[in-house]
């Protein structure tokens, strides 16, 4: 049964350039929809999926197939190495520059991805945070490794209750980011949010894909099985020398690293990938549901329904 679709139309003056942002939980069909829309609008696709940026990570991040990549021009797919530090700020700068270039020949561009922070950086711009010492982050990561996430969560609750109640509190990266700003600046992380953002030259319509939870979970379980069939175990094994890199601290990789280190069986590692991917999908939906401008469609809805909606909402 269809839920809602995500639409976010920037307020202010009428602009002729349009960004169609496709969001939703992992494995729901965002790539397929983005290609159909790119073909319809004769345009190109920007990926905002931060897991798919890296050359060395293909199977475990469900990078679009060669056929899908050939069906429409894609940008920011496997464009950097896991050995290169890459931040959401760098992505915002590079993606906005790419959009400026694409809008010289296209009125509409498609953006697709399940990384809400990265999508929002393009649509709304980033909050302006102070520069924080790398030493603070290293200390927090060391504490995470030795003591686990819970002490960091309690520390954030003490320093910034507002952030504790609003960020993805079970996501170590988000907790550490909030904490390092609190500690490094002496001010709550939340105090740097919601300040005036940069103006964009485009309006945005966000389209969200969703399904009943059981369907999402079944699709995720099957997707993981397909990844294993396609060589996920071998891909992760080849990356063992780099297991401590930040890019590889992600679902699908960290579970298999533990298996290769002698923790549990392969079947258990695969079941953990499925479980953690389902949790990831739940966090994605929690993030997106905070944005009331998103227009949700069921994953089985006809693409023509989506196109009609976009045509109705797009700027003149």
Outline the structure in words.
- The protein is an alpha/beta fold and 316 residues long.
- Helix 6 crosses helix 8 (172-185) and helix 9 crosses helix 12 (266-289).
- It folds into two domains: 5-126 and 197-313, Rossmann fold, CATH 3.40.50.300; 134-192, Histone, subunit A.
- 35% of the residues are buried.
- A seven-stranded mixed sheet has the order 1-7-6-2-5-3-4, with helices on both faces.
- The chain has 13 helices and seven strands.
- It is globular and about 55 Å long.
- The longest helix is centred in the last third of the chain and has 24 residues, at 266-289.
- The two termini are 31 Å apart.
- Pfam families: IPPT (PF01715).
- It comes from Winogradskyella litorisediminis.
- Belongs to the IPP transferase family.
- GO terms for molecular function: tRNA dimethylallyltransferase activity.
- This is tRNA dimethylallyltransferase.
Concise synopsis of the structure shown:
About 45% of the residues lie in helices and about 10% in strands.
Main features:
single chain; 10% strand; disordered N terminus; Rossmann fold; ATP-binding; 2 domains; 47% helix; alpha/beta
Rg, alpha carbons? 20 Å
CATH fold title of the largest domain: Rossmann fold
Which stretches of 5+ consecutive residues score pLDDT under 50? 1-14
Strand content: 5-15%
Helix content: 40-55%
**Largest sheet descriptor:** 7 strands, mixed
Shape: globular
Mean pLDDT over the full residue set: 91
Widest sheet: strand order? Answer: 1-7-6-2-5-3-4
Structural class: alpha/beta
Q: For this structure, what is the CATH class of the largest domain?
A: Alpha Beta
- What number of structural domains do the residues give? 2
CATH-derived architecture of the largest domain: 3-Layer(aba) Sandwich
Counting DSSP E segments of at least 2 residues, the number of strands comes to 7
Counting DSSP H or I runs of 4 or more residues, the number of helices is: 13
Task: Please identify which CATH superfamily of the largest domain we are dealing with.
Answer: P-loop containing nucleotide triphosphate hydrolases
Task: Return the string of H and E elements.
Answer: EEHEHEHEHHHHHEHHHHEH
The N- to C-terminal Cα distance equals 31 Å
Cofactor: Mg(2+)
Pfam families: IPPT
Catalytic activity: adenosine(37) in tRNA + dimethylallyl diphosphate = N(6)-dimethylallyladenosine(37) in tRNA + diphosphate
InterPro entries: Dimethylallyltransferase (IPR039657), IPT (IPR018022), P-loop_NTPase (IPR027417)
């Amino acid at each position: 049964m269809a839920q809602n679709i995500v639409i976010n139309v920037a307020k202010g003056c009428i602009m002729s350039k349009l960004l169609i942002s496709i969001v939703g939980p992992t494995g729901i069909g965002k790539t397929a929809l983005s290609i159909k829309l790119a073909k319809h609008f004769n345009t190109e696709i920007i990926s905002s999926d931060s897991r798919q940026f890296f050359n060395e990570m293909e199977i475990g991040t469900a990078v679009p197939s060669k056929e899908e990549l050939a069906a429409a021009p894609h940008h920011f797919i496997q464009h950097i190495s896991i050995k290169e530090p890459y931040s959401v700020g760098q992505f915002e700068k590079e993606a906005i520059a790419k959009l400026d270039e694409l809008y010289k020949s296209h009125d509409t561009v498609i953006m697709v991805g399940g990384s809400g922070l990265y999508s929002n950086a393009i649509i709304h711009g980033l909050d302006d945070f102070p520069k924080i010492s790398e030493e603070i982050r290293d200390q927090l990561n060391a504490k995470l490794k030795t003591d686990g996430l819970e002490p960091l969560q309690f520390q954030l609750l003490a320093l910034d209750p507002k952030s504790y109640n609003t960020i993805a509190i079970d996501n170590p990266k988000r907790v550490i980011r909030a904490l390092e700003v609190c500690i490094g600046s002496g001010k709550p992380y939340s105090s740097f949010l919601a300040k005036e953002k940069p103006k964009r030259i485009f309006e945005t319509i966000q389209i969200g894909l969703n399904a009943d939870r059981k369907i999402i979970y079944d699709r995720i379980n099957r997707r993981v099985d397909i990844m294993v069939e396609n060589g996920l175990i071998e891909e992760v094994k080849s990356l063992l020398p780099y297991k401590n890199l930040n890019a590889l601290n992600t679902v699908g990789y960290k579970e298999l690293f533990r298996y290769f280190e002698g923790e549990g069986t392969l079947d258990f590692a695969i079941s953990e990938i499925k479980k953690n991917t389902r949790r990831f999908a739940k966090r994605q939906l929690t993030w997106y549901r905070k944005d009331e401008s998103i227009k949700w469609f069921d994953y089985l809805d006809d693409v023509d329904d989506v196109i009609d909606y976009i045509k109705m909402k797009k700027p003149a």
